[in-house]
Design goal:
two-stranded antiparallel ribbon; 262 residues; DNA-binding; 2 domains; homodimer; Chorismate lyase; globular; 30% strand
Chain lengths: 262, 262
DNA sequence: TTACATTTGTTCGTATGTATA
DNA sequence: TTATACATACGAACAAATGTA
């Protein structure tokens, strides 16, 4: 990486031409993270070290890291170091779980966020249908894992999830490993398969409960439920998981992300 | 504002004690913005001027402004200045309008975002019911404006909105002014009433269409529709508007904010 | 077209404070 | 106590965009 002036063009990849230096540094960092040498337990090299290695000032390096922190790719901990953002329960609740108990109009005390009890109802290997293939960007008919989960809050079933994963991407995944995972699903992807989910696209609609959903959620067939289609993405917006969640919104709400942030 | 050391304590408000200097500066800026002297057309004083006035370095001032820019409170324009973020159509579409046409599975071309055609169906002054009062943090029975809108995309009604505004806050609002506003609703609040909506909390659920909603959206009564409860907030999380949107999701989706951002 | 002033954007470097082990 | 790492704060120089004389 070189100073960005006209007489000495930067010695980076061609696409980086004319990008600000801190953006180029950001890309370098993304590559380093993507390579997977730094799990959630092991800090990246210190800012001083990285600045030296990439031949930029500490301020420029921090600017790049700042952006990755804002995107929840990295987390900084003063005195300890900078880490790839771990997929712990707190992150799952904040970034990926959008169901909260309905406010009681007579009660001002806000319900605290509650981690759902998850039970796996089905685990199968099958061929991708057209929708799954399109979402996961694989060829129709390629192998996928199809998983069915029931999520309960305070003992009552509230969400029914159907996941589709590319079998190519999650080679050697078994029902046993899936069920006996110690943390969240995305932590499993991260630690066991080196795949870090960075963000998700979600589209929601209201539909009448199908027979399968009605049974899972203990509702009459045809009851309006929310159906959320989520595509979880990793670096380069590569699809990782396609998930359809059906939510019983009789006593719970779907809470949009931004409502949680400051 | 003073240098933050032990011998010369900072001369700011007591609550600011021990806050980093750039956070104190951020609060000062928020006060300046809140006072309303700087509309969306008039730039704030330049960074150099503000840094001098607040007796901090340019870097510290920029740090404070950076945060306000990230929160969409301010926008910077190189060569022109820094402005209170205007409520134009682009911002409305990005931050506050979450309805998009459903993807056609056979078609990869993404539908471009389309601004809805809004028609006002009702405008009335009434007394706040319990729900509205709680949401807007006013006393039950206080005067509110209650407004009903229909939103159409490509000529088809898709959303039915019911708004509640505190009449105290929007003194002198009339149906004529509301209907003949040149820009978005939030632009009206901003330019005509000095109230800048900063963010919104949203909770969504699936419900059967009521008679009123069914009529507005040309649907059979009981059809599942999405009902989105939005509370729009200004500085200090003060409630500005309480809105219930009913969405026909037969051909459209509710798209969560984060799906739009990078 | 040119030149210039103004404003934000980028990059550098240094010093000091605070949290952690 | 010491060493390490991130956090805050200062200041300077130049680049890039904008508007105007």
């Amino acid at each position: 990486m070189q100073v960005n002036n006209k007489t000495v063009p930067p010695q980076t990849s061609p696409a980086d031409e004319s990008l600000p230096l801190y953006r180029q540094v950001k890309r370098e960092l993304q590559k380093i993270i993507e390579d997977g040498h730094y799990g959630p337990g092991k800090p990246l090299p210190s800012e001083a070290t990285l600045a030296l290695a990439l031949q930029v000032s500490i301020g420029t390096l921090r600017h790049a890291v700042d952006e990755l922190v804002h995107e929840h790719v990295l987390v900084r901990r003063q005195g300890k170091g900078t880490f790839v953002a771990p997929h712990n329960r707190a992150r799952f609740m904040f970034q990926f779980f959008h169901v909260e108990p309905r406010w009681d109009p007579e009660d001002d005390t806000p319900q605290e966020q509650e981690f759902p009890e998850i039970t796996c109802m089905a685990f199968a290997r099958d061929n991708a249908d057209a929708l799954e293939a399109r979402a996961l960007r694989i060829k129709p008919g390629e192998a996928v894992f199809r998983i069915e989960n029931k999520l309960a809050l305070r003992g009552r079933p509230v969400v029914h999830d159907r996941l589709a994963l590319s079998a190519m991407m999650f080679r050697n995944l078994t029902e046993k490993r899936f069920i006996e995972r110690p943390g969240t699903v995305y932590a499993l992807y991260q630690t066991d398969f080196g795949i870090t989910v960075l963000r998700a696209q979600e589209r929601a609609r209201a539909v009448p409960a199908s027979k399968a959903v009605a049974r899972a959620l203990a509702l009459p067939v045809g009851t309006p439920v929310m159906e959320v289609h989520r595509l979880a993405l990793t670096f380069g917006d590569k699809p990782v998981e396609y998930r359809i969640s059906s939510i019983n919104t009789q006593a719970h709400d779907y809470v949009s992300m931004l409502s949680k942030a400051s």
